[in-house]
Amino acid sequence: QVQLVESGGGLVQAGGSLILSCAASARTFTNYAMGWFRQSLGKEREFVAAISYSGYNKYYQDPVKGRCTISRDNAKNTVYLQMNSLKPEDTAVYYCAGLQNAYNRTYSDSYKYDYWGQGTQDTVFS
């Protein structure tokens, strides 16, 4: 069983920045493609960003493209999501997800992910 634990969420003013972290308990973290998703109140969970197991391939959803950077440190079993120029519409619970035995590519479909974190709340106020 793999555990994913997010951290770094909080309350931030519009225009500010946050860095989310997701620590994985997986022994073979380098075999996992990772992704970030978010869910706002009353809305369905949506894809935010994904990174391949090598870290070479990255993919972003349009609303965050240019404002977010996903990265990973395989030595620390951790994936990060840096968000800049935050907007009130970025307010959501952010979830980290892991896909085991992935190809060296990114995945944006939530149903393909095997493991999920508990989520961390980000609130952006204007």
Number of helices: 0
Estimate the helix proportion, in percent: under 10%
Order of helices and strands: EEEEEEEEEEE
**Beta-strand content:** over 45%
Number of strands: 11
End-to-end Cα distance:
40 Å
User: Which stretches of 5+ consecutive residues score pLDDT under 50?
Assistant: none
Radius of gyration: 13 Å
Q: Could you characterize the architecture of this molecule?
A:
- The chain is mainly beta and 126 residues long.
- 0% of the residues lie in helices and 46% in strands.
- The chain is built from no helices and eleven strands.
- Strands 2, 4, 5, 6, 9, 10 and 11 form a seven-stranded mixed beta sheet that branches. It has a four-stranded antiparallel beta sheet with strand order 1-3-8-7, with no helix packed on it.
- Strand 4 and strand 5 form a beta hairpin.
- The radius of gyration is 13 Å and the shape is globular.
- The termini are far apart.
- 35% of the residues are buried.
- The mean pLDDT is 96.
